[in-house]
Fold:
Amino acid sequence: MSKEIISMEKFQKKVYIETLGCQMNKSDSERILGMLSHFGYEKGEEDEADFLIINTCSIRKLSEDKAYSKLGVWGKMKKDRPQIKIAICGCVAQQEKDGLLKQFPYLDLVFGTHNIYELPDLLQELQKENKDGSRKRICAIRDKAVPEKEFNIIRSKGINAWLPIMEGCNNFCTYCIVPYTRGRERSRDIKTILEEARKIIAEGFKEITLLGQNVDSYGKDLPADENGVKPTFANLLAELDKLEGKFRIRFTTSYPTDITDDVIETVQNANKICECFHIPMQSGNDRVLKAMNRRYNRQQYSEIVNKIRNKIKDVTITSDFIAGFPSETEEEFSDTISAIKELGLDYSNTAAYSPRPNTPAGKMVDKFISNDVKKERLARLNDTVKMASKQSNTKAIGKTFEILVEKIHENDYKNGNVRIAEGRSRNNKVVHCKSNTAQVGDFINVKIKEALIWCLKGDEVVTNPCIKDNKNTITAGKATQ
Ligand code: SAH
Ligand code: SF4
Ligand code: F3S
Structure:
């Protein structure tokens, strides 16, 4: 090793980021790592890092508490290694601002969701001292986003890459903190997105997940092009579908009544766009939906689901539900249970309602549901989701799916010491099958023979000659096992 390399290594600093919350936060962390790499930082472990960052989520109190407990651990670490810098960013930082500096004396930097691209400057400032010789402590929170800067992105290794297409939310559902922590909707320019997608594919990723709080709003805030045409989510999907290469496109999250016929048709006709929609319903009861400020009722939600199912074969429709929204009665809650069953939702994320500061529902204190009741409703909700998932998986038996392999389990003793490939079908079902040859990132065909609650099992299928009747299921082919 040359002297020059040794000295560079000596100055190489390590950064550790812990990421809580949604994919948007994961994507932000990848951008932060990319930026810091230009300033001599490389990814390191928690116990060796010079710079520790927690990227936080405030969707529920529980997620916020996780961030605080991590800061406590890092505060103790700082006693032994006082030179380390500790930063907090993400939705809790945006919400709590400089109160965090007061609350956590060992914290060095608080930066908001709109300040990410200022991090290199902030870090430089942090290295200086105050006039009185004390250590600098900085809180940088903007109300509005600054234009993004061009930096490379250090994406987590794997086969899926997150690609934000827009940020923020204009919906102001009464329970939700996101519009306060992420600001109003802002779409990224279509050319920037396409360019980033090309890079992702060139780097070898096999799947791109487009991110936005409400992807169907994409383009509403963008100007029309030279031909007077406004960009829409459907256009963006169609453009991405035209990119060269063998890869998949997913997207999340869809707002029920904003999904256009164009989007449904684009998914139906595209080759790379996977057949799944994540459409949070939140409640199956009309009065509760109104109190949540959701702009649809049960009937309208059901119409959207049916329209998508009628057009797209083997489509998966997933949802989110909240148990125990303020004032929700037992009867109203039972409408949520019946909606999951009636609509045949394939899978749903669930949560007990958690009051969030500054949100309208968080102020309905006299209507709060007791923790015990919320817990009990959540348990029933989870049982229903489990049953729905099993039922949905059962429908896959006998079908052959194209699987993108994500993991290989060597010598899986539970399965008799065999090599198991695990991956996802286009419609986002987790599938396991024996395979001696499949590698991570391969596309293989699997004939499903068993449905469990959360995954499917099947046999690998030789694909010669394999005739695709549509993109999800495959007709001919010979089972290898
Ligand atoms: N943009 C998405 C969801 C973003 S937040 C949408 O439109 O639905 C992810 C999920 O967290 C929400 O769908 C909701 O089910 C849940 N959630 C948000 N605020 C919550 C709160 N205060 N308590 C419990 N769950 C909440
Ligand atoms: Fe929150 Fe509603 Fe916006 Fe989703 S649509 S992020 S639930 S305010
Ligand atoms: Fe959480 Fe913020 Fe995402 S509150 S869910 S990290 S947008």
